[in-house]
Amino acid sequence: MTTPVTTPVLMPPFEPGSYFARDILRDGEEAYVRAVHQGDQRVLSEVIRSLSPDSRYFRYLSTKHEPTNSDLSNFIETSVPRHVALVGFTLQDREEKWLGVGEFFDSECSDSAELAFAVKEAHQGRGVASMLLRHLAEIGRLAGLRSFEAFVHPHNTRMLSVFRKCGLPAHFFDDQILVRVILDL
Ligand SMILES: CC(C)(COP(=O)(O)OP(=O)(O)OC[C@H]1O[C@@H](n2cnc3c(N)ncnc32)[C@H](O)[C@@H]1OP(=O)(O)O)[C@@H](O)C(=O)NCCC(=O)NCCS
């Protein structure tokens, strides 16, 4: 197994919006992680459009085909007190080839934030979500968060596996329909 190499570049004072890092995927391919910018809605549209109906259901708990305008504006939203969205990509001829997105949001400014991920169907299983989670955890710690929370469909074994193997202390609670996951930072 390839040991991930993370080389985050953090500009002092720490500004999540300028986050950029290099990393290595499970198959050894070089990948990058950066914060999303204003105007990046197309990233989310492209990722969601690539998802199978099952994957779409796991992300939104509905089988909608397109992200709504509100999904898109929330994705690049900067007014939520703590919202950080990252895109993972490879470079081909200097052009970004998007792999997936991961974000955390904390509208109540508490010490915990909620996680969400979507990885392009063709790139699932390459460690993209695990990579994004490593970087979100790093940013979350620097932002003063103590934990992440996620609500996962019980059949979403891929997401549950990412959380189980991420190296952070993970706690799983059956919350009626969904599994509530707490990751200690
Ligand atoms: C859940 C999701 C984010 C995981 O992303 P990913 O980049 O594939 O995750 P990773 O590669 O880091 O790990 C996924 C795990 O599922 C397995 N997996 C992923 N794709 C697979 C596939 N097509 N077939 C079999 N196993 C697969 C991987 O082997 C890995 O398990 P392991 O560590 O036990 O080997 C992605 O599948 C996805 O976007 N799903 C739809 C949206 C969703 O469910 N979002 C989460 C809502 S909170």
Quick recap:
With 185 residues, the protein is α+β, with helices and mostly antiparallel strands. It has helices at residues 41-50, 53-60, 69-75, 128-142, 157-164; strands at residues 7-9, 20-24, 30-35, 82-92, 95-106, 112-119, 147-152, 170-175, 178-184. The chain has 5 helices and 9 strands; from the N terminus they run βββαααβββαβαββ.
Which helices and strands, and how do they pair?
Blueprint: E1 7-9, E2 20-24, E3 30-35, H1 41-50, H2 53-60, H3 69-75, E4 82-92, E5 95-106, E6 112-119, H4 128-142, E7 147-152, H5 157-164, E8 170-175, E9 178-184
Parallel strand pairs: 6-7
Antiparallel strand pairs: 1-2, 2-3, 3-4, 4-5, 5-6, 7-9, 8-9
The protein binds coenzyme A (COA).
Can you walk me through this structure?
It is a single chain. This protein is of the alpha+beta class and 185 residues long. The protein has one domain: Gcn5-related N-acetyltransferase (GNAT) (Aminopeptidase, 3-Layer(aba) Sandwich). Helices cover 26% and strands 35% of the residues. It has five helices and nine strands; from the N terminus they run E-E-E-H-H-H-E-E-E-H-E-H-E-E. It has a nine-stranded mixed β-sheet, with helices on both faces. The structure holds coenzyme A. The site of coenzyme A has 24 residues, from helix 2, strand 6, helix 4, strand 7 and helix 5. The site of coenzyme A (COA) has 24 residues, from helix 2, strand 6, helix 4, strand 7 and helix 5.
